[in-house]
Amino acid sequence: MPLAIRSAIAAIGVVLSCGSDLRAQPAACADDGARDWMVETLAAGTSSAPVRPADCAIVEQTPPDFSWPDHGASARYEFSLTFPNGTTRRRATERNWIAWDEVLPPGVYQWRARVLTTIGEDGNNGQVAAGQGVQSRARRFEVSAAAMPFVVPEWTVLFARARAAPRPRTLPADRDPFLVSLRTERRDGLARLLADVKSGLSKPVSGPPTSPAKDHARAEVHAECQRTLNAAFAWVAAQQEEHFVDALRRARNLASWDPRGGSGYANGDEAAREIAWTLALAYDWLTPRLDATQRNELLSALRIRVGDIYDDLIGRRPRVAVHPFDSHGNHTLTYLAAMSVLLAGDVAEAQNWLRDVVPLAIHWTSPWGGEDGGFANGTAYAQWDTGDKLVPWYVLRRALGVDIARKAWVQNYARYLAYFQPPGTPAGAFGDAAEQSLTEARARFGKGYASFAPSPLAGWYAAQLKGEDPARLELLLAPLSDPRRPDRIDMPANTPDAALFASIGWAAMHSRLADPARVSVYFKSSAYGSFNHSHADQNSFVIDAGGQRLAIDSGYYDGYGTPHWRHWYKQTRAHNAITFDGGNGQVVYEEREQLGRGAITRFEHQAGYDIVTGDATPAYGGALTRAERTLVYLRPDLVLVYDTLGSKLPRQWEWNIHALQRMESVGTRQVRIRNGDAALCVQMLEGPATEFTQTERFTAEPQGDDMPAQWHGAFVTRNRQPAAEFVALLRVGCTNTTVSIRRAACGWSVAAAGRQVQLCSGAVAVAAEK
Q1: How confident is the model at residue 35 (pLDDT cuts 50, 70, 90)?
Q2: CB–CB of 77/67 below 8 Å?
Q3: Which terminus of the chain is less hemmed in, N or C, by CB atoms within 10 Å?
């Protein structure tokens, strides 16, 4: 898996308002493309850490997260912050990020980072004397009046808190109400867990994984770790001797596995992380009953296992700070932070682990989006990554007093869930595993998150979810709910039915967000491009209605890096996007190590309609000179799609659409998609002469069970030409709609459903029909 993005993601963190042209910048702010050493370093591919806050950002967390691209192993930096009154404060740092140590009052600030040339040590705590520095340009940001304070104490304070925290450190300080809740409001989950533990009391422990296949070995490890955790937590919750005996034998079994053998970190980072995490939790829960020999058994294994993770992620130079988009590394970082807290005072190395890891993990809570709560690495991984971090987050809050729920990204993540995984949705929107329904995980993680970071929107969201496994630790260990919470939770008043997540380049538009039978239109044009679990699908869309998938992201997640994943799933032709000359599309990162970026350049939300425009020209890696798409969503059931395309060479253009069932021809340049009771009619109103073709074949077949054929259609131009315009009308429900289109002075004028839509590049407008 690649560790670095070799191109800038400069727009991350910018918060923009509805109805704005996102290409416009205030006069006092520079365009993020203006050259300085940060932009040049990113462009050179030497670092992938983003520039935060981006120029012109309005931040909702104070202080915000400051970061910049790494300038090399020997680089040192001088960070300067200019306050609204003109005062400037400077801090020297060896890291490419900084956690400012005080709340910044509302106002407009500027920040810079200067690269210092190493010319020798000055003998003062390892500080490096400054040589000829390379200064960045000033970037302006505004702390909003509603910004939430979030200051992280110095690491020595955190270590003292961790060492002094009573065990189990995983539980809240006020233990009695929590334990009572396990036997009352969480009794069903606890009963299920206790029954599972009882059924395994007579079963032998499992040995180290034997399968040479990494996925199978990880499944073997997961099963034994789950049995160990359940037994250990059963002891905490019910205090039955049989639970302690079972937990101890299973924990000692895991500790006996060779930490440098088949279950070691070098042979499988995810499985090894799970073993270390299981042992750390078991140690925390069982410690009051362990004798010295038993404690040493567990701690000896943990010292090696956690140390190997630390050496890889941090070592002499923290690679997860330089490369925060290393998805496994960043995810493991949070576990490493929590393990250092659980072991503080009992393992000598834990002091250094906590010093180097906890502040960094808090800083990089999620690199996959900005303060707006977005998660660019796909809706499925949004659930898995964030959901899996819940228990480590509980530890950081309870043992350190650091409440990550107060970070802007965590608070606003409820919006991302509500808009891209709304209750009743049949699947995800974009990225690996988006086609999976993930009902149990969505309910479990959604409810756990809402308990950890409560808000009116999170409360409404969680109240709609069903199907979770209540015996999982994310729910059993979750913070207690507010006893004043009403039985019925309505969506907060004035919640809009559409939202833009500018930091990731995603937009969600719904007929009515609160309605589980809603029409949902999703659009993506992202600066994260096709990196990691994202696909080469800039300017693509997905449409669901009535709880059914209609215009789908096609393909199946049959594994990372499989032939199907490489040759179909990640490719532009697998999505509702533009290709040319027989399925050629956007840059796929794994093939060219280029992001293939897109950008949402306009977003407008009104009660009766939404407008979103994306520019995917850079995503085609120079093959096209123009690739702009605008969606106009006319509530509740009409979508206009307007494409303007250009190339230096004549192309055969392909307007792609995908469905679960074979599409029906229902007239000239018009097809119907059906799925159960839901339907979508796609009509090409204007554009070059085309022929519609469809097939149920993939360019590489997926491997696995329950992966039925899907249908892949395209309106293909009959002649090659260097430029093309398409105007398509998509009617959800295939309702009869009178529509007319005519060429206008600029672009096209479309009359539909009593509204007049002007389609012109940079000047799309909707008005009542005259």
Answers
A1: confident
A2: no
A3: C
The confidence score (pLDDT) of residue 332 equals 96
CA distances from 2 to 432, 530, 589 (A): 16, 12, 9
Tell me the per-residue pLDDT of 352-401, one tens digit each, with 9 for 90 and over.
999 999 999 999 999 999 999 999 999 999 999 999 999 999 999 999 99
Of the candidates 647, 607, 609, the residue with the CA atom closest to the CA atom of residue 630: 609
Say yes or no to pLDDT of 770 above 80: no
Residue type, 225: C
> Euclidean distance between the first and final Cα of the chain, in Å?
56
Which residue is associated with the tokens 């809009």?
A: 496
Strand partners, 694: 713
Token pair 């059931």: residue: 637
pLDDT greater than 50 at residue 25: no
Structure tokens at 751: 């009359």
Prediction pTM value: 0.93
- Token couple for 675: 């799925």
**Amino acid, res. 241:** E
From the list 681, 538, 510, 556, the residue with the least C-alpha distance to 599 is: 538
Say which residues have a Cβ less than 8 Å from residue 579's Cβ, sequence separation at least 6: 572, 573, 585, 654, 656, 714
Report the residue count for the chain. 770
Question: Residue 11, exposed/middle/buried by CB under 10 A (0-12, 13-18, 19+)?
Answer: buried
What pLDDT sits at residue 118?
A: 54
CA pair distance 400, 413, nearest whole angstrom: 23
Residue 212 is given by DSSP the state S
Q: What is the pLDDT of residue 762?
A: 79
> Is there a contact between 609 and 765 (Cβ–Cβ < 8 Å)?
no
Alpha carbon distance 50, 365 (integer Å): 14
Name the more confident of 561 and 120: 561
Residues with Cβ within 8 Å of 211's Cβ and at least 6 positions away in sequence, in order, are: 217, 220
The confidence score (pLDDT) of residue 30 equals 54
Backbone dihedral region for residue 437 (phi beyond 0: left; psi -120 to 50: alpha; all else: beta): alpha
Largest CA distance in the chain: 85
Q: Is 581 exposed, middle or buried (0-12, 13-18, 19+ CB in 10 A)?
A: middle
- Would you state the pLDDT for residue 47? 56
Confidence grade of residue 46 (pLDDT, cut at 50, 70, 90): low
CA pair distance 360, 344, nearest whole angstrom:
17
Strands 66-67 and 97-98: antiparallel
> What's the DSSP call for residue 114?
E
What is d(CA 653, CA 441) in angstroms, rounded to the nearest whole number?
Answer: 40
Per-residue HEC secondary structure of 352-396 comes to: HHHHHHHHHHHHCCCCCCCCCCCCCCCHHHHHHHHHHCHHHHHHH
Q: Single out the residue of 174, 199, 167, 194 nearest to residue 183, CA to CA.
A: 194
Structure token digits, residue 609 = 């309609």
Burial of 488 (0-12, 13-18, 19+ CB in 10 A): exposed
Q: What is the pLDDT of residues 159-200, one digit of tens each?
A: 999 999 999 999 999 999 999 999 999 999 999 999 999 999
Any idea what the Cα angle at residue 39 is, between residues 33 and 44, rounded to 5°?
Answer: 125
Average pLDDT over residues 254-260: 97
Q: Residue 615: in which H helix or E strand, if any?
A: strand 609-615
pLDDT of residue 119: 44
Q: Give the angle 329-334-338 at the CA atoms, nearest 5°.
A: 135
- Structure tokens given for 519: 């029409």
Q: Which whole number is the average pLDDT over 720-737?
A: 96
